[in-house]
Structures are given as C-alpha cells and as structure tokens.
User: Fold this.
Amino acid sequence: MSDTRKVWLDGAKGLLPETVTLRRKIHEHPELGLHLPKTVAAVREALDGLDVKIETGPSTSGLIVTLQGPTQGRTVLLRGDMDALPMPEDTDLPFKSKEPGRMHACGHDSHTAMLAGAVKLLHKNRAKLAGTVKFMFQPGEEGHFGALRMIEDGLIDKHPKPDGAFAMHITPNVPTGIFTAKAGAFMASTDTISIRVVGKGGHASTPQFCVDPMPVACEIVLALQSFVTRKISAFDPVVLTIAQINGGTTNNVIPEAVTLVGTLRSVSEASRKRAKEGLKRVAEKVAEAHEARAEVTLTAGYDVTVNDGRMVALAAETARGLFGEHGFAPMPAPVMGAEDWGYVLQRIPGCMVFLGVAPEGCDHHHAAPCHSNRMMLDENAMANGIALYAAVAERFLDGGLPAA
Assistant:
C-alpha cells in the first residue's frame, strides 16, 4: 500500500466510529430548509479545537470551513448537504428520527458526517496540502436552493475562490463502498407542473348541461405522455409525471375545476425548453377541444447538474488508487433526480459522484432507495467517503485538473 493511500484509508477508518456517532446524532433530529440550528451546532461541536476558519452568511445557516495548507497554491471546495425531508421514518433503527414527520431519507446526515470527518483527516495531514481546502456545509438542498443562497451570500466566491469543486451523494442502490459518476449531464433539471382545468359545474346526472373538467384532465394526462414519446428525442429525454389529480367534493356533483400537479425532469436545457413549450400547448388545446380551459403554471426548479469530465477523471483515478480497479464504476446514463450542486458547477469546474451504501445483506437492486421511508445505509462505507474527499483534495491541490 502506498504511503498516500495508507494515510487516507487508515485515517478514515480511524475516524469512522466518531463519524457514525455524528451521523446518528444528526439522524435523530432531522431539520428542514435553510436554517438548521441543531445540525450546525453538532457540526461546530465536531470541529471544535481545529485550526480552521468558519464563516456564515445572512440567508442560511450554511457554513464555509476553510483549512489552509502550508503553501498558498490552488483552492478546492468540498461539499456536504445537511437538510432532511418532510416525511415519516418507518425503520426499526435505534437512532430513528425523533422528530414527527421528518426523516433523513436522502442521506444528508451521512454527507455531513463524512465531510466533518474529512475536515479532521485533512487537518491532521495539513502538511501534505499544497493549497487551501474549503468545506461547504450546505442547508436547503431539498428544494430550497440552499447552494444558490450561499453563492448569493458571497461565501463561495470569497477569496480564495475555489479552482475546483467536489461533492458526493450516497445511494443504497449501488454496491457498498463503490463510487460511480459520469462526465456531462449527471442529474436532471426539475420543474413543477400545475394545470388547472376549468369547466362548468353541475349535477352529475346531467353532464350535457356541464363542461366536466374531470375527463378533460384525464385526457390531458394521457396526451402529455404521448407528447413526450412523440416530440422529445429518446436520446435527449425528459420524464413528465402527473402525480396528483385534485378535484370534486362528492359523488353527485360535477366540479367546476380540477387541478393536475406533477414534475418535469430533463437532462439538457434544449429538451427542457421544448418540453415546457409543448406541455403548455397540449394542455391548452386538449381543454379547448372540450370547451374547457387549461391554466398552466410551470415553476422552475433546479437546473441540470453538469459534471466536468476532467474532475470526474481525477475522482475516478483517485478512487481506483485507493480502493482498487473496481472502486469506481462509470455511470452509463444520468439520473433523473435533481441537485442544486449544479449551481456551484456552473461557476467552478468540478463534479459529484455517488457512493454506494447498500445495507449489509441487501441486494442493491432491491434496497429501499433515497426518499423512501425505509431507506437505510451501510455506515461502514462512510470511511470510503472520508478517504475520497481527502485524497481528491490532496490530488487536486497538487496538480489541478488533468488535460481535457
């Protein structure tokens, strides 16, 4: 084992017990949105006594922790998000959520704990750092634009501005300890769809005197699926899902209006634009054909997360150096989940990788995924995450990005 590999792997494994303790502490008390006082307090406590600079901004409780090596050189940004989801936890874990209707179902508790572990590991080995490492403890990833708020607060661009950026996200649906990523489009954009179909209400026994919005709404749902398959290239895909149909009050009244709610995901701005334009046209024209009216509202969510191929190559080579040839597996295609890390990558060359955390004894193909009320993870894999954070930082500061 090379000296560098031994430093990061052995160091990460040594930090695993306290990393697990921090992760479980955060898991028990999940917090939502942009302001996470208990989580931030736990992070600050974990970093107490380290020679680092900690900065905050006015918009969120996010932290930028700065560790300066013995020389100036480049700067690299490492990120972990901290917020949870507004959903119940239905696991039997002894440290399950104590906050009703809140759960760390997307692994952000592990991201936070691994990043804190990386601060400690790099701090212990700061003599090896040919530059500066910034650690971004970010709130509000789950739909609150936390990364964008921290950018707007000036925390990311503040001197020294990072030359590269690296993040990881756990997934129970990859074998434990394995990293995976791809260059280019990595995660999708997301937009929220709301379509209010307005007709004319009346008695359910006399639909001929009404304009029933319910079958019109159902027809719009089907028409939108046909639109996606016929008008959007299969090689630049979108996913359009109508997840709710809301309308009506009782069995014998035709309502005046029905509302459809859903999501639109795409992996390029071109397909995103085409889908949004076509969605509006299809909904309005189908409604018009039935003498109803469709009021379409599209609320923009996150942009596409695009990985810099050079940083992916650096991360892949680093992972294989640490964990062997099978430590990194190329992703064949993007995923349709969304991430606000993309806003950082629009400003700084970098990437995100997935870390497999399939629970012990569970086939990763059948593991409860992120956002499941039964999601669990293999905590031992967090040592791999700490080690890769540290090794990527050292390698980037030593040589920057490889040639394109």
